[in-house]
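Database export, one record per block. Field names are fixed; values are copied verbatim from the stored entry.
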Amino acid sequence: MAISLSLVLLVGIILVFMIRNGRVKWGPALVAILFGFLLASSDVAPDIQNFLDSAAEAIADINP
């Protein structure tokens, strides 16, 4: 839960910076946000969450 919340926060901050810098206009940003909400309620959401959890564990296991 903490990883997904921090990932949402990070992506949200990146999206705000991209909108403010003019790299992404409001229309495409709104479509991307709506797509994310719809994707979260679909049958694919658990698979995406499992992938993100596995990727986070793999990154955490990397020893510097």
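Remark 1: The chain is about 80% helix and 0% strand.
Remark 2: The radius of gyration is 14 Å.
End of record.
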